[in-house]
Design goal:
Elements (H helix, E strand, L loop, with lengths): L1 H13 L1 H39 L3 E4 L9 H5 L20 H9 L4 E15 L2 E10 L1 H7 L6 E4 L10 E5 H7 L6 E6 L4 E10 L4 H6 E5 H7 L8 E6 L5 H12 L3 E3 H4 L1 H39 L1 H9 L4 H36 L1 E4 L6 E3 L6 H28 L2 H8 L1
Parallel strand pairs: 3-8, 5-7
Antiparallel strand pairs: 1-9, 1-10, 2-3, 2-6, 2-9, 4-7, 5-8, 6-7, 11-12
Helix pairs in contact: 1-13, 2-11, 2-13, 2-14, 11-13, 11-14, 12-15, 13-14
């Protein structure tokens, strides 16, 4: 085997320029594949992290997936309804204390109840529509990601009592308000209440920073004229991956619609799977092109070394040895190119990580390219490179092994 390695090295060194070009092709393919995989994986991880952090892992609302069964449906096999008018029910989740206690017994995480309603925040002649969330500050701080995004104040400031409100800093900018300003909150029922701003948060999400406001639960109940009502239970799990199972069990237990963060973003997660398939297809295509360079150089060596092959076979080398010889040459190019590609890919990732910019046009802020540093990117790119190199080396190797030394020597004479 040592002799075969020496021969393979001699063949490659004899065509140093072509060997270098083949190695360069593999290195560029591996390097750009690593950088592209890091960039796409990083953007995916960043997107999923934002989804997980910006919304509850499980959200239970006062809705049901199926409309309530009409009494006539139980009495008759065939029914047809028209002109039904839904009855307004302001009670929200019925007996929320009992529901919460039942969930507390087994849910692996924190839980908070709230009353979500719509309203308008008004100040100095300016109106901004907002989703008004009536919360229990201590419980909300354990569940909501907003608790870590305060630039002034906190949820605990609501616990001091009185008429207080917490809003996003971009909503405050639109209103011309600031910390300590008293604004008017107009509910969907027309009630007006003057509230003092005791906290400003900045999540980086335009929808939240401009369109959400938090008040005490009792204040939201008064404004919406729904005493003691709760229409939402939000759960933050210890393991976000368990969200589907927890949502299914909670819905079966309570009868209310329970939506996991995965279900709420199902179409987006499907798009991510498709994007990953496209990414790895492109990576394979890049390395396949590099494989053609390996095929070209090994084929050329095979053609030029026909006489050497005849001499080696006449000295007792078998067909299997010839296959090994040229297969080793192809894999050697792939291996050296992979190592060079690792260095190139790592360097590209370092350069991309230093790029800074400001992007706020997509509803969220971004200042750096999100990158994922994973050894799997290097392993997968090298695996593709070695596979394409092996295939590119095997085809000429098989041809070389079949050469008849007598025919070669006769042709040479």
């Amino acid at each position: 085997m040592r002799l075969l390695l020496d021969l393979a090295f001699t063949h490659l060194a004899g065509r140093a320029r072509q060997s270098f070009v083949a190695i360069l092709g593999v290195g560029l393919g591996v390097g750009f594949s690593v950088a592209m995989a890091a960039l796409m994986q990083g953007s995916q991880d960043d997107l999923i992290a934002n989804l997980v952090d910006s919304m509850p892992h499980v959200r239970i609302t006062d809705e049901t997936r199926e409309p309530p069964r009409q009494p006539a449906e139980a009495a008759f096999d065939t029914t047809d309804f028209s002109g039904l008018r839904p009855r307004e029910d302001n009670r929200g989740i019925r007996n929320p204390t009992a529901v919460r206690a039942a969930l507390d017994a087994w849910v692996p995480g924190d839980m908070a109840v709230s009353l979500r309603t719509q309203g308008v925040v008004r100040y100095s002649g300016r109106d901004v529509g907002a989703a008004i969330l009536g919360i229990e500050p201590e419980a909300e701080a354990r569940v909501s990601s907003v608790a870590q995004d305060f630039v002034q104040g906190s949820f605990s400031a609501l616990s001091a009592g009185g008429n207080s409100i917490v809003i996003g800093d971009r909503m405050a900018e639109r209103l011309g308000a600031a910390m300590g300003t008293t604004v008017s909150l107009v509910s969907s029922t027309g009630l007006v209440r003057r509230l003092k701003i005791v906290g400003l948060f900045h999540t980086g999400s335009t929808a939240r920073d401009e369109g959400e406001a938090y008040v005490l639960l009792k204040n939201a109940q008064i404004l919406s004229e729904r005493p003691n009502a709760v229409n939402e239970i939000r759960i933050k799990l210890d393991d976000p991956e368990a969200a589907r199972a927890v949502a299914a069990r909670a819905e079966a237990q309570t009868g209310y619609k329970s939506v996991s963060w995965e279900e709420a973003n199902e179409s987006l997660l499907e798009a991510i799977v498709i994007r990953n398939a496209i990414m790895y297809t492109v990576v394979a295509a890049i390395l396949l092109v590099a494989g053609f360079g390996i095929f070209n150089i090994v084929s050329t060596i095979t053609h030029e070394k026909a006489r050497d092959i005849a001499i080696l076979k006449s000295l007792g080398f078998r067909e299997a040895d010839m296959r090994r010889l040229f297969l080793v040459e192809g894999i050697a190019i792939g291996a050296v190119g992979s190592v060079a590609g690792w260095a190139l890919g790592f360097g590209l990732c370092l350069v991309l990580a230093q790029i800074t910019f400001e992007l706020r046009g997509m509803g969220s802020e971004m200042s750096r390219l999100p990158l994922a540093w994973s050894p799997w990117h290097y392993a997968i790119a090298s695996g593709f490179a070695l596979l394409s190199a092996g295939i590119a080396g095997y085809l000429p190797a098989r041809k070389a092994a079949r050469l008849n030394p007598v025919d070669i020597i006769r042709g040479a004479s």
